[in-house]
Amino acid sequence: MLAAPDVRFATAGDAVAIAELSRDAIEYGLPGAGRWRGCAARSHRPTPIIIVVDGAGAIDAFGIMAYTDDDAHLLLFAVRAAARRRGLGSAMLGWLETVARAAGASRIRVEARRDNAGARSFYSEHGYHELAILPRNYSGLVDGVRLEKWLRDAA
């Protein structure tokens, strides 16, 4: 387990590294994977937060969260393979959940690849529940799973 990571807001200079990590950890096997324009399109939704954690010479993790009304949507979230299983993802997700609560979000929604058992297990271990299978959600080729976590009562 790592000590609490130093989370910082992403800069324009992080764009390529974020796109490469997205390609390797989320978009593997999909056409056009790793293009910053996909990340950028996601990041232009209302009030996004883009955070990163630096590693040795590279970004070890990033997350992009958008807020609308009283919901938060974790648009992209990845940890470099070599940095996994040390608590980095848990620490970052906790940071993002704290910010979502402070912003007044009732819940956080996220999608994961259906074939990514590690991501699905990670979210489940952090209190996220699978709601639906999303056929061909990734580039029209790979099914996704929609998950959510309620931060406060729905009522």
Question: Mind explaining what this structure looks like?
Answer:
- InterPro entries: Acyl_CoA_acyltransferase, Bact_Acetyltransf, GNAT_dom.
- This is GNAT family N-acetyltransferase.
- The longest helix is centred in the middle third of the chain and has 15 residues, at 88-102.
- The protein has a 7-stranded mixed beta sheet with strand order 1-2-3-4-5-7-6, sandwiched between helices.
- Helix 1 (15-25) crosses helix 2 (36-43).
- It has 4 helices and 7 strands.
- By secondary structure, the protein is an alpha+beta fold.
- The mean pLDDT is 87.
- The protein has helices spanning 15-25, 36-43, 88-102, 117-125, and strands at 7-9, 49-54, 59-68, 71-79, 107-113, 129-138, 142-150.
- It has a single domain (7-150), classed as Gcn5-related N-acetyltransferase (GNAT) (Aminopeptidase).
- The chain starts with 6 loop residues before the first strand and ends in a 5-residue tail after the last strand.
Number of domains: 1
Largest sheet: 7 strands, mixed
CATH class: Alpha Beta
Category from helices, strands and their pairing: alpha+beta
* Shape field: globular
* The CATH homology group name: Gcn5-related N-acetyltransferase (GNAT)
User: Quick one: how many beta strands?
Assistant: 7
